[in-house]
Amino acid sequence: MASPTCSLSLPAAYLERPIVIGLSGGRDSVALLHMLAEKHCDLNELHAVHIHHGIRGEEADTDADFCRELCAQLAIPYEEHRIDAPALAASTGESLETAARHARRAILKDAAARHSAAIALAHHANDQAETVLFRLARGAAGPRGMEPISRAEGCIWLRPLLDCTREQLTEWLTARGYTWRDDSTNAVADVTRNRLRLEVIPALNRAMGRDVTPILNRSARLQSETHLALDFALAALPSEDPQGRLYLPFVLAQPLPLRKAILRRYLLRCGVPGVDEATVLAVDAMLPPDSPTARRCLPGGYTAIRRQKRLILEAPAPSL
Question: Could you give the domains of the chain?
Answer without folding.
Answer: 12-208 (3.40.50.620), 237-314 (1.20.59.20)
